[in-house]
Amino acid sequence: MQYLVEYMISILDNNWLRILMNVVIMAGGKGSRLGGMKKPLLEVCGVKLIDRALTVAKTINGVDKIFVCVGKDDLNAFKDYGDEKTAVVLCPGQGYVEDLIFILKRVSFPVLVLPADIPFLSNRVVMEFLNKALECKTDVATLNLCKGSECGEVGISLFRGLGGSWCNIYFDYTKEKELRDIDTYEDLQWAMGLCESMEDLKRLE
């Protein structure tokens, strides 16, 4: 399959890979298991989840443009997020897969997809994923977090195109803190508990 655009890879002095690419942040979640709360706008440790995703995206070398995919009911809440590097895009709101396909058809590849519901997402873990994803020769590489033999996707993927070839990249549960998303009240309580633990450590310093 012919990719829509060429991409360049060069080795930096720190041996991380630099990619010329776009980033899509999926921020259209309805939060149905959280009583309808808008997950991207939830604050954990004083930081909104969407801001966490944007901060990570903006610290990745070689990112050209960041696209934030939102539904029509959330468009007004995100109106101030657009800038010279970031565009807020109105997606159909028909479901995650439908919205993802919608926006991928409108941006240039390669595309890094990030979720807007991981409170402790870090540049380090995303760069580790990208280094592994670039070893795959498939159209899509997606990150799975594993606990024992059970693995699940966390919403982080690298798309080189819309073909059908797929590569799964597995991270073990030692990276739970950086990759656990907020889907339920239990997840939210877990994240808030970590905030309190970090505050306790700061007071002891």
TrEMBL record:
InterPro entries: MobA-like_NTP_Trfase, Nucleotide-diphossugar_trans
Keywords (A to Z) from UniProt: Transferase
Pfam family, one: NTP_transf_3
Domain MobA-like NTP transferase residue range list: 23-142
Entry keyword annotation includes Transferase: yes
GO molecular function: nucleotidyltransferase activity
Highest rank taxon of the organism: Archaea
Entry keyword annotation includes Transferase: yes
SUPFAM superfamilies: Nucleotide-diphospho-sugar transferases
PANTHER family: ADENOSYLCOBINAMIDE-PHOSPHATE GUANYLYLTRANSFERASE, MOLYBDENUM COFACTOR GUANYLYLTRANSFERASE
Name of the protein in its database record: NTP transferase domain-containing protein
